[in-house]
Specification:
Layout: E1 3-6, H1 25-34, E2 40-43, H2 53-56, H3 59-66, E3 75-78, E4 81-83, H4 87-106, E5 112-115, H5 137-149, E6 154-158, H6 165-171, E7 177-184, E8 203-208, H7 214-231, E9 235-240, H8 257-275, E10 279-283, H9 289-305
Parallel strand pairs: 1-2, 1-5, 5-10, 6-7, 6-9, 7-8, 9-10
Antiparallel strand pairs: 3-4
Length: 307
């Protein structure tokens, strides 16, 4: 079995306006890089029952989103989260790609998957869009694993430079999900202190200062690995941001492209005996196009190594 890349052409139809960092070119930068490879499987999203959205989001919020798409132009959902006519299909296909990835892993069509889609998801809360995010893709995926496949121990590892307040709030009361985050702090969105632990000690935050180097990050990463081993996850979801890269303009960490291979490899090696390789990685941040493409390729290298 190999690694599968699951994405949707509709991701590029989610328009955010000139100068916005979360732009369609993020997807094309990644896919053009990965399509040069011969060792990957490619698939499109599957249709899914939208009722699963209600596990991660309030029904009133879902109804509001469904009525919000403009007929033309752009519309603001919050200060930096915009939607366009093409966003309606894009946000559903983003979730559909995650569902397809989970189904493929569960049915042994492929060993693991990387899902480069947009809009991203980890800032989306139960009833609020924010930080470029509308539906929380990984959170819906986690609920799908719980509802359909009856998983009791799901880990969401989120190395994005911004803490995933959406993940944290959605799973604060859920003993079946461990959320782990390294992130720049203090920084957007303002959450992510070490004191925020969840009602079941199921939130694990490691706030790090601006200027964090590769070596400093790897020391923090060791703490993430230790907590993961203690939890013994049955399935690993990766909320994969690449904006810790030194060339990324939205953060101030100093990681290099090759570091994304190393941190992914270490996580997979530590959890493989628990997950048996069941891993789905979903794109979050990463805004310098060259750094994003290089880092995503390194991330995929590690996923392939564990086939």
């Amino acid at each position: 079995m190999s690694t599968c890349i699951i994405t949707s052409d509709t991701s590029i139809n989610h328009l955010t306006g000139d100068g916005h960092p979360e732009r369609p070119e993020r997807i094309t930068a990644i896919t053009e890089k990965l399509k040069k490879r011969k060792d990957l499987i490619w698939e499109k999203p599957r249709k899914f029952d939208p009722i699963i959205l209600k596990k991660a989001h309030d029904e009133t919020y879902i109804d509001m989103i469904q009525k919000s798409f403009p007929k033309e132009g752009l519309k603001l959902l919050d200060d930096d989260t915009l939607i366009s006519p093409g966003s309606e299909k894009a946000i559903m296909d983003a979730v559909g790609c995650v569902i397809q990835a989970i189904e493929g892993v569960e049915n042994k069509k492929f060993k693991n998957a990387f899902v480069p889609v947009r809009p991203p998801g980890h800032h989306a809360e139960k009833n609020k869009a924010m930080g470029f995010c509308i539906y929380n893709n990984c959170a819906v995926g986690a609920h799908y694993l719980i509802e359909k496949f009856k998983y009791k121990k799901i880990a969401i590892w989120d190395p994005d430079i911004h803490q995933g307040n959406g993940h944290q709030s959605i799973f604060w009361d859920n003993k079946n999900v461990l959320y782990l985050s390294t992130h720049q702090y203090p920084f957007y969105p303002g959450t992510g202190s070490e004191d925020e632990k969840g009602n079941y000690n199921n939130i694990f935050n490691i706030p790090l200062p601006a200027g964090t180097t590769s070596g400093e990050y790897l020391k923090a990463h060791d703490r993430i690995i230790k907590r993961l081993i203690e939890f013994e996850p049955e399935f690993l979801l990766i909320s994969m941001g690449f904006d810790m890269h030194k060339d990324d303009g939205l953060g101030q960490f100093r990681l290099e492209s090759k570091d994304f291979y190393e941190i992914t490899k270490r996580i997979l090696a530590a959890t493989d005996k628990f997950t048996r390789g069941k891993v789905v990685s979903v794109l979050e941040g990463g805004y310098d196009l060259n750094a994003l493409a290089e880092s995503a390729n390194e991330h995929v290298n590690a996923l392939i190594e564990f086939n």
